[in-house]
Amino acid sequence: MKSFLLAAFSMLIFISCIQSQATDAKIAPVTNTVPQPNEAIATFSEGCFWHAEIVFQSLVGVRDAVSGYAGGHTKNPSYEDVATGTTGHAETVNVYYDPSKISFQTLVRAFFASQDPTEINRQGNDVGTEYRSIAFYRTAGEKKIIDEEIKKINDSKQYSNKVATEVVPFTKFYKAENYHQEYISHHPENPYVQNVSIPDFNRFKARFKEGVFK
């Protein structure tokens, strides 16, 4: 999204083909950062957090995915700070889910299915360390699940390169500015949303066969 305004102008020519795609990505906006008694939290970075929000919110058992920043060293960063690439943070989502309805393993599989995990410091046209792929873990069990999924992907040779996703312990999550929360739901007309976020989401839905979608 760093060069969003320039990219948005160039993508306006594609608007006529997005009407039917948009209907597949209507996820009810929530944004409640207080975990419920039955909930656990998983944290992932996979490029633009607008995209990551609807990926996880589309799954049964996930109540909300909140956009923010993690993986860096700067305290209380702003979007502008993170966009400089000097904070160490990546655009990230905190996923609030019910483990009795969806497992951490399924979330990890959705995470890898909704991106190209072999790309380094980018996803598509979004380039920079803030768009790198990171799977955060809170327990040794979660790390084991992530590592096993990476091995499975690498062994499958579905990509020509190895998975570049960072696997790091979770430390701190900083919630992003309010205007980033549920951005796709609030701004379905945005050219980036129409021509990047929604098509990416629809490709994920077609690819993620084991997912139970809302």
Describe this structure in words.
This protein has 214 residues and is α+β, with helices and mostly antiparallel strands. It has a single domain, classed as Peptide methionine sulphoxide reductase MsrA (Peptide Methionine Sulfoxide Reductase, Chain A), CATH 3.30.1060. The chain has eight helices and eight strands; from the N terminus they run ααβαβαβαβββαββαα. It has helices at residues 4-11, 19-22, 49-57, 79-83, 104-113, 140-156, 183-186, 191-207; strands at 40-46, 62-70, 90-97, 122-123, 126-127, 133-137, 166-169, 173-175. It has a six-stranded mixed β-sheet. Helix 3 (49-57) crosses helix 8 (191-207). The two termini are 27 Å apart. The model is unreliable at 3-28 (pLDDT under 50).
Architecture blueprint of SSEs:
Blueprint: H1 4-11, H2 19-22, E1 40-46, H3 49-57, E2 62-70, H4 79-83, E3 90-97, H5 104-113, E4 122-123, E5 126-127, E6 133-137, H6 140-156, E7 166-169, E8 173-175, H7 183-186, H8 191-207
Parallel strand pairs: 6-7
Antiparallel strand pairs: 1-3, 1-6, 2-3, 2-8, 4-5
Helix pairs in contact: 3-8, 5-6
